[in-house]
Specification:
Rossmann fold, alpha/beta, elongated
Length: 666
């Protein structure tokens, strides 16, 4: 499709001036196809990928068809979220900047009713709102629908997914059918909205723009395969290596959004969050700060995926992939907008790989796997940034001269030593500490050494052993099993921070809130100094000398244990059976007194026995569901158990299996 200029679409000089001011000359494919049809007043179904410019495609014709002299609502635009309604209202305001008398008004939930009442009384021609709040204003009479000539559903599929079907029907039915222009725009067009199309449109024109090089391929995509416990550190490393200054991180839940935002701020990044539990005022305040670049990173849920319209966004991260591939398209569509390039990276772990396959099938693209940046790469990147900052400062010459200090240092040290020490101190002060993760300890298959022959393993005791008790010391660490700590984490932390070989580490005992580690006594002090204060499993580690743990299995007082009455066997006894005649029971049997029974379910003889205490005796009686008692009479056997004895009880004889008792036996 050949590109068209906006000047070729028959637009008014005021609209062309506004478009030029916004920096656009050439119409996108959806704009070039849709605008002529909408200017003619036709109903239309538009389908195009996010970021393709469909907002201007329906906003420009809507503004052109407005009668500026009539101060009453003429165009109604419905959006699924507050953010999208706000974005569309801003876009309409820019496009109508030179149209005198044309005013727009956003109305959505979370904002003040009084302010919206005043705005509606002022007579705006274009109303942009969410379905719920629009229905409220129709109900209270503040929004008059008899003058509406054009109704536009933006992201129609999303509104149905969010449960606005009833509200959409109410709004569409409130618009006068005569002379009504109905327009549906969406990034996708599922089967569910065909009913709306059939009921509320007349011979609609269908415009569908396929995903081409102007949409998905303009975004450089990739994924990182990482353990879920390493996701936050992997994300930070990707931020450092890519030198991200302006990006969005999408999470799957509101709780996850809070946790990721808190973790990023704790690591020194400038981040804020956006999700559905925040009030509208808070959300608007966060978006204002993000657009003004007062924060570098925005952590958000999918509630913001279709409502964000931010210029020059560098990168989008998927901390966790969405279940719906369409949501993935909307997420990454926040970058690479209007033909610009962008980047999208997804962090994949465990079951998310299946979701990644669905995304690749849906988008018909192969997403390459990216390696997790290593500690050396991150450190080198941090050093490079410090070097660049130093060069810029030197070139600008905006620094105080320190000749006296330099001369003093040069008396005892060379210039190289001084610069090296300064770079070390600055990098240590300014750079983010890099944590070790599982991926740092993984070796490629070709690099693995052949497994040595070893003696047969001793019985597992839950410990990792490397040194003996002689000449060893025990250290106590403040992180335990509750933080998800594994023996490999402890070994990697000690070896990585101290630089000592792993052979100096002996037994490791991981408890719920702390960990005991056996190390070679000669290196104990060095290890304590190296690991104290580092972060392990997202917790600051405190290490000190400790005492050896109790051997596995000890710690419980010795002595005779209280009998487990639920597993006892009983001899018969008619008198006691009669004593417990009032207690409930399940099985039934008869016979004389017998010896001990076997199994879980059976029937003793004599008297009425309790549900959990069998007592045999002469005559008929009920036995418990979990006891089997022998006798000279008949007894029903327990499920899947062999019983021997005279008759069917205990004693001597052959065994047999029978199903559990479900009825009375004689």
């Amino acid at each position: 499709m050949s590109q068209k200029l906006f000047a070729e679409l028959g637009l008014s000089p005021e609209i062309l001036k506004a478009v030029e001011k916004m920096g656009f000359e050439t119409a996108s494919p959806i704009q070039a196809e849709a605008i002529p049809h909408l200017l003619e007043g036709k109903d239309m179904i538009g389908q195009s990928a996010t970021g393709s410019g469909k907002t201007a495609a329906f906003a420009i014709p809507a503004i052109e068809r407005v009668d500026a002299s009539a101060a009453r609502p003429q165009v109604l635009i419905l959006c699924p979220t507050r953010e999208l309604a706000s974005q569309v209202a801003e876009e309409v305001a820019k496009l109508a900047a030179f149209k005198k008398g044309v005013r727009e008004l956003p109305i959505y939930g979370g904002a003040s009713y009084d302010r919206q009442f005043r705005g509606l009384r002022a007579g705006p021609q274009i109303i942009i709102g969410t379905p719920g709040r629009v229905v409220d204003h129709i109900g209270n009479g503040a929004l008059q629908m008899d003058s509406i000539k054009t109704i536009i559903l933006d992201e129609a599929d999303r509104m149905l997914d969010m449960g606005f079907r009833e509200e959409l029907d109410q709004v569409l039915q409130a618009v006068p059918e005569e002379g009504r222009q109905t327009v549906l725009f969406s990034a996708t067009m599922p089967e569910g909205i065909r009913n709306i199309i059939a009921r509320f449109t007349k011979d609609p024109v269908r415009v569908k723009i396929e995903n081409t090089a102007a949409t998905i391929p303009a975004i450089e995509q990739g994924y990182v395969d990482v353990d879920w416990r390493s996701k936050t550190e992997a994300l930070c490393r990707m931020l450092d290596v890519n030198d991200v200054k302006y990006g969005i991180i999408f999470c799957f839940t509101k709780l996850q959004t809070d946790e990721v935002c808190e973790a990023l701020n704790a690591r020194g990044y400038s981040a804020d969050k956006l999700h559905g539990d925040m009030t509208q005022a808070m959300r608007e305040r966060v978006m204002k700060r993000f657009r003004e670049r007062k924060i570098e990173l925005l952590v958000a849920t999918d509630v913001a995926a279709r409502g964000l319209d931010v210029d020059d966004l560098e990168i989008v991260f998927n901390y966790e992939l969405p279940h719906d591939p369409e949501d993935y398209v909307h997420r990454i569509g926040r970058t690479g907008r209007a033909g610009k390039s962008g980047k999208a990276i997804s962090l994949i772990s465990g079951r998310e790989y299946g979701r990644l396959q669905q995304v690749m099938r849906f988008t018909k693209t192969q997403i390459p796997r990216l390696p997790v940046p290593k500690i050396d790469e991150v450190s080198q990147k941090q050093t490079d940034r410090l070097t660049e900052s130093l060069k810029e400062c030197l070139d600008a010459g905006e620094y105080p001269v320190q000749d006296e200090l330099v001369e003093k240092l040069l008396t005892d040290h060379t210039p190289n030593q001084i610069i090296s020490a300064l770079m070390y101190l600055l990098n240590d002060e300014l750079a983010r500490p890099v944590e070790r993760i599982r991926e740092d300890d993984q070796r490629a298959p070709a690099q693995r050494r052949p497994a040595p022959t070893r003696e047969p393993r001793a019985p597992h005791t839950g410990e990792v052993t490397g040194v003996t008790d002689q000449n060893s010391a025990w250290l106590k660490l403040s992180v335990g099993r509750n933080a998800g700590l594994m023996p490999g984490d402890v070994v990697g932390c000690i070896a990585g921070e101290s630089g000592l070989p792993r052979e100096v580490i002996g037994a490791i005992r991981i408890l719920p809130t702390l960990t005991l580690v056996q190390v070679a006594r000669e290196h104990a002090e060095q290890i304590l100094q190296a690991i104290n204060g580092v972060r392990l499993r997202n917790m600051r580690l405190s290490a000190a000398e400790g005492s050896p743990p109790a051997p596995m299995g000890e710690g419980r007082p010795s002595g005779p244990r209280r009998p487990n009455r639920e597993r006892e066997d009983f001899d018969g006894g008619g008198e006691r059976g009669w004593e417990d005649a009032h207690r409930p029971s399940r099985g039934y049997g008869e016979g004389g007194s017998g010896g001990p029974g076997f199994g879980r379910s059976g029937f003793g003889a004599g008297g009425h026995g309790p549900a959990r205490r069998p007592y045999g005796g002469a005559g008929r009686g009920f036995g418990p569901p979990r006891r089997s008692f022998g006798g000279e009479g008949e007894s029903a056997p327990p499920p899947r158990r062999n019983f021997g004895g005279e008759g069917s009880g205990g004693g001597e004889g052959g065994g047999y299996d029978r199903p559990p008792p479900r009825r009375r036996f004689d």
